[in-house]
Amino acid sequence: MQDLLYFSQQLINGLTIGSAYALIAIGYTMVYGIIGMINFAHGEIYMIGAYTALLAITGLATLGVTWLPLILLIALICAMIVSSSMGWAVERVAYRPVRGRHRLIPLISAIGMSIFLQNYVHLAQGSRNIGFPALIEGGFQFGSSGAFQMSLSYMQITIFITTLICMTLLSLFISRSRTGRACRAVSQDIGMANLLGIDTNRIISATFVIGAALAAVAGLLLGMYYGSIDPLFGFIAGLKAFTAAVLGGIGSIPGAMLGGLILGVSESMTSGYLSGEYKDVVSFGLLILILLFKPTGLLGKPEVEKI
Fold first, then answer.
1. Could you report how far apart the first and last alpha carbons of the chain are, in Å?
2. What transmembrane ranges does the database entry give (predicted)?
3. How far apart are CA 40 and CA 35, in angstroms?
């Protein structure tokens, strides 16, 4: 029974982190699915969303606002607005001017934007860790006292529910809305979409905005979950989310969700049964193993070259 509780605890922890990875990974996979490029500044946009949410929470506390749902709602809206604006700006500044050129040029441009955003936050907020208030506390305990007890916190439940809602809304948007259908058309053939009258520039910008908004949601959730943020907060999470997107199949939204969950669970199980020092080794080793046998990822489809 103790072994089962311990396994369940690691599974819950892994699904919690994996859900956040999935939210961030969607930004990578949507941009790649539309224009075939990797937005390496996406992790920094996630980090800026976390900082924006923290500033909003601090400001509301200074004004004397104490109702928790209102604080979380305003912080989430502020983070999504700022991150979405940043995503739109990154597309206009770092991608649109070099779109259509050799793929190495947009890649270097994105890396440069990533370094710029890191250093901008470093200069504006300092390099130290900043405490993020634990607004959602408490949870459930399972197991007998005096032995190992499995815990399911309200924060973890919040992450699960929020991720589920975001994924459902995104799926409905992609499948049923006019803009979502345009996104699918552009991802299949951007040239033909242009000929059919679709404003591909607007669709590409919308893709960056949607991915940035989801990253802002993850920034708020993981900021509260970990309890601190710093200017490198987005680099590691962005790298893990990119790994999750590749693992599930870059360009596939369900693949990004699946890859994030698998990566989160593998990290948690490694930390729980081996050591936290080996979690990155196991995660990236799993990625290499899957790509050796299925280069397109778990749910990715091979690209068909049009002649």
1. 60
2. 20-38, 45-64, 70-90, 102-121, 154-174, 203-226
3. 14
Question: 3-state class of 139 per DSSP?
Answer: strand
The structure tokens 């080793």 sit at 285
Do 183 and 203 form a contact (C-beta atoms < 8 A)? yes
Which DSSP string corresponds to 240-284? HHHHHHHHH-TT-HHHHHHHHHHHHHHHHHHHHHT-GGGHHHHHH
d(CA 41, CA 45): 7
Q: Are 24 and 218 in contact (CB under 8 A)?
A: yes
Residues of the chain with pLDDT > 70, as a percent, come to 98
Which CATH architecture fits 2-293?
Orthogonal Bundle (1.10)
Tens digits of residue pLDDT in 132-157 = 988 888 888 887 777 778 889 999 99
Whether the CB-CB separation of 152 and 5 falls below 8 Å is answered with no
CA proximity to 158, closest of 212, 213, 224: 224
- What is the per-residue pLDDT across 196-255, written as a single tens digit (0 to 9) for each? 888 888 999 999 999 999 999 999 999 999 989 988 888 888 888 888 888 888 888 888
In angstroms, rounded to a whole number, what is the distance separating the alpha carbons of residues 60 and 71? Answer: 7
Write down the pTM of the prediction: 0.91
Instruction: Strands of the chain (E only): list them.
Output: 130-131, 139-142, 150-153, 228-229
Domain ranges in the chain are: 2-293
Instruction: Give the C-alpha separation, 81 to 76, whole Å.
Output: 9
Buried (b) or exposed (e) across 28-47, using 16+ Cβ within 10 A?
Answer: bbbbbbbbebbbbbbbbbbb
Decide if 215 contacts 41 (C-beta within 8 A): no
